[in-house]
Automatic annotation (TrEMBL), chain A:
Belongs to the ubiquitin-activating E1 family. UBA5 subfamily. Keywords: ATP-binding, Metal-binding, Nucleotide-binding, Ubl conjugation pathway, Zinc. PANTHER family: UBIQUITIN-ACTIVATING ENZYME E1, UBIQUITIN-LIKE MODIFIER-ACTIVATING ENZYME 5. PROSITE patterns: D_2_HYDROXYACID_DH_1 (PS00065). Residues 62-316 form the THIF-type NAD/FAD binding fold domain. This is Ubiquitin-like modifier-activating enzyme 5. Residues 340-359, 369-408 are annotated as: Disordered. The keyword Transmembrane helix does not apply. The lineage of its organism: Eukaryota, Viridiplantae, Streptophyta, Embryophyta, Tracheophyta. GO terms for molecular function: ATP binding; metal ion binding. The keyword Lyase does not apply. It comes from Flemingia macrophylla.
UniProtKB/TrEMBL annotation, chain B:
E2-like enzyme which forms an intermediate with UFM1 via a thioester linkage. Belongs to the ubiquitin-conjugating enzyme family. UFC1 subfamily. PANTHER family: UBIQUITIN-FOLD MODIFIER-CONJUGATING ENZYME 1 (PTHR12921). This is Ubiquitin-fold modifier-conjugating enzyme 1. It holds the Pfam family UFC1. The active site is at residue 119. SUPFAM superfamilies: UBC-like. The keyword Cell inner membrane does not apply. It comes from Flemingia macrophylla.
Amino acid sequence: MEVELKHLLADLQSLTQSLPDPSHHALLLKIQLRVEDLANLAPVRRSKVEDMSAEVVDSNPYSRLMALQRMGIVENYERIRDFSVAIVGIGGVGSVAAEMLTRCGIGRLLLYDYDKVELANMNRLFFRPDQVGMTKTDAALQTLSDINPDVVLESYTLNITTVTGFETFMSSLKNKSFCPDKQGSGVDLVLSCVDNYEARMAVNQACNELSQTWMESGVSEDAVSGHIQLLIPGETACFACAPPLVVASGVDERTLKREGVCAASLPTTMGVVAGLLVQNTLKLLLGFGQVSPYLGYNSLKDFFPTMQMKPNPQCSNVACLKRQEEYMLAKPTRDAAAKAKMEAEAPSTEEGPLHQDNEWNISVVDDIELDGPDTRSSDVLPEGLTHELPAADEFHEATVGTPVGDTDDLEDLRKQLEAINSS
Amino acid sequence: MEGWDPNTKSTLTQIPLLTTKAGPRDGAAWTQRLKEEYKSLIAYTQMNKSNDNDWFRISAANPQGTRWTGKCWYVYNLLKYEFDLQFDIPVTYPSTAPELELPQLDGKTQKMYRGGKICLTVHFKPLWAKNCPRFGIAHALCLGLAPWLAAEIPILVDSGMIKHKDDTTTTSTES
């Protein structure tokens, strides 16, 4: 639009000069002024910012974020520019999470979705009616690059549950061109904001194989409850370790369902869950506060259950078992590091008794236990949480199905089926 | 399995169960799984034919056996309604079931996800989870697609959402 207006002004000027009759000049000048007003109304894109500054001026997009350092919350906020976060599913939760991270000045965002924006999405945040028909990834790229051009954005329009989609997903996570010195994969965190079990299992598979820390999020189909969960392969339960959890809301509800079978949704619940998810993300990446292993949200009772789940040693996911083994092997190193840290912090506690007399024998008891009562194996659940799907039954009898001839050749079998199909 | 009709139950017990837990990324183990899929599909199709209850055709659309296409049909009021049937084998198969698609019915019913994926969440997914890895494609058709067609097609026909291909009273869009 800016370019169009410039051309219009140039045309007006040449018209003014070529007109011999000066009686029209007043009107032409008026038109010119109106066009100039329009040009001033046109949106201004902010330019990229080289370094995050803590300077408190209206024009600094990061002053309020850098103030987190002055407040003693975050030690080094600018580190956020080194982090890459992958968001799978750019729907009601994923798009809002992407906007939050973009506004926080995250280094790089990778966005995955195969869906298009529809008018039926307008009860949620982020997408606008004029984006209807665009792919969610394209629409998100448009908005996010306007909000903060400093963020490196990558978008992938694909379905991660198909064989080819999954391969692209894996290789994009492994790509280290953004930060070549980084340990492990090419991203720091994967956020799952998908609306179905199949896609969650695909994210779980990829993250288990890559030993990639990820967070899962979900909103129930009745729109009144949700959850976030931190998954560290080998250390915490993976998504396949136990049947998925749902926050019981007192109403019969099933979460992990997707849109289409007319699920309800609210911008509020989705906004809350996106907020919880990104808050946990910031705490994990920037190293402040306590990172929640599982946080549920029941909006009807404003109840927020938390829990911690250990991995299942009999998990059906092979990659999960491998990660569990690695985690066990690394235990001595971990213990040594923890001990060294304890000792480094110890001297400050030995400063003589605080009170000379203690008539009532009052003592301070630590309420943080390392393996507190909230750490449990995955089959015991705290109040307010239930399993969504049953676990697979144990089956011992041999069930090999070979009643159809003795052939064991794939091509023969394929032909057999074709023969029956065409008979 | 409570709530299932005795016919479906007896059919189900005759479909050979599978043993190999392998997905499309598992190399040789997937080939083994694919053989078991074929055996169970062949047995199920044969059984349907001999019981005069033939209702689908399905075959692999690529050599890896990760994409399947075919047809399924349902008879209602003595008229046969036929639809294209297609699905991909997900990377996390068999932990997750294939998502069966009837693309011609996309947007015509609430019991369907975008792209024509039929809704299996309530009646089928828990059964699949409980029986992993013994259930295969044939079981998904028998316990997932068949009851869906039986529940949805009469409603779609009665409400006029789909028309029989020989019904020429209005411009026919459905085969």
